[in-house]
Design a protein that fits this description.
The structure is a single chain. Strand 4 and strand 5 form a beta hairpin. By secondary structure, this protein is mainly α. The chain contains 12 helices and 5 strands. It folds into 3 domains: about 60 residues, no CATH class; about 110 residues, Periplasmic binding protein-like II (D-Maltodextrin-Binding Protein, domain 2, 3-Layer(aba) Sandwich); about 90 residues, no CATH class.
Length: about 300
């Protein structure tokens, strides 16, 4: 609604009163008086129109200008200790003052159990907006619509786009389900091999070369190992402490895997799988450079 100030209302009232007074007196106004009244009335109308226009423009601006943003709470969960994210939460508050970021801990025994706990929390009405989960959980939570595609969020966020551009495509593809990006990489497992530089030096063995082969590995291991069935036995290599990770690296460097590429079926009939298993068995049984898992205390070593 348009509003008038006191001065504008008095001028408008004066013009109306003058017209009423002339009419009441019954006098015949001279052309000069009529011209004056008409002129003043037109001027008042212009001022009224101007005020109305200004008021409408103000209302448009007020309506179009968003009010202060309300604080939005975002809850993230991880299998890691919440203290791990203390610095990240602090930075988030500085960069995004309208976001109240909270990080909770969801216990993990294995990734399947972790996924079940996440689903249970959501089904129980708990707020979970962001989760940290390994690649194993992507198909499960994607199929159950727990994870949603991130493409639209990435397109609207320059920072996310910069992160994606700086991330290896292979890491991104592993976190996709049915062609949709359901996660952004947080960290990944690199397969590396450590060797004891002191033992190599004491035995006069050259450090491994970047392009060494399985045959080179066996030759080096036989030089390091000294296994005679005594308490002083020295093994060259053990892959048991890494559980499946200790074995899967050997499959990968042989361009194979116990599972098909889509992880849905066994790939154990692949000749390269048998070749890899035979190589690992030979390290134990033939070359005796790797301990038999039976009775082996990996952590104690």
């Amino acid at each position: 609604m348009a509003k008038f100030n006191r001065r504008q209302m008095l001028k408008l009232s004066g013009a109306v009163a003058l017209g009423t007074l002339l009419e009441a007196c019954g006098a015949q106004p001279t052309p000069q008086v009529v011209e004056k009244v008409v002129k003043e009335t037109v001027e008042v109308q212009k001022e009224v129109e101007k005020v109305v226009t200004q008021q409408v423009e103000v209302e448009k601006v007020v309506t179009a200008t968003p009010g202060p943003k309300e604080v939005v709470t975002i809850v993230a969960t991880s299998q890691m200790s919440t203290e791990t994210f203390t610095n990240a939460v602090t930075r988030a508050k500085d960069l995004l003052p309208n976001i109240n970021l909270k990080v909770t801990n969801t216990q993990i025994v294995n990734w399947a159990g972790y996924s079940d706990l996440v689903i249970t929390q959501i089904a129980g009405g708990e707020q979970l907006d962001v989760i940290m989960i390994a690649v194993e959980g992507v198909p499960l939570l994607g199929r159950k619509k727990i994870l949603i595609p991130l493409e639209s969020y990435i397109a609207a966020d320059a920072g996310a786009q910069a992160t994606i551009a700086d991330t290896h495509p292979l890491l991104l593809s592993m976190l996709q389900y049915q062609g949709k990006q359901l996660e952004i990489p947080f960290s990944w497992n690199n397969m590396v091999m450590y060797y004891n530089t002191k033992i190599f030096k004491d035995k006069g063995i050259d450090p491994p070369k970047p392009d060494w082969t399985w045959d080179d590995f066996i030759a080096t291991s036989t030089k390091v190992a000294s296994v005679k069935g005594t308490a002083d036995d020295l093994y060259a290599y053990s892959f048991w402490g890494g559980t499946m990770f200790g074995m899967c690296a050997w499959y990968f460097v042989n361009d194979t895997s116990p599972l098909t590429d889509d992880w849905k079926n066994s790939n154990m009939l692949d000749p390269k799988v048998a070749e890899t298993l035979q190589f690992l068995a030979d390290l134990i049984l033939k070359y005796k450079v790797t301990p038999n898992p039976s009775g082996w205390d990996e952590n104690g070593q």
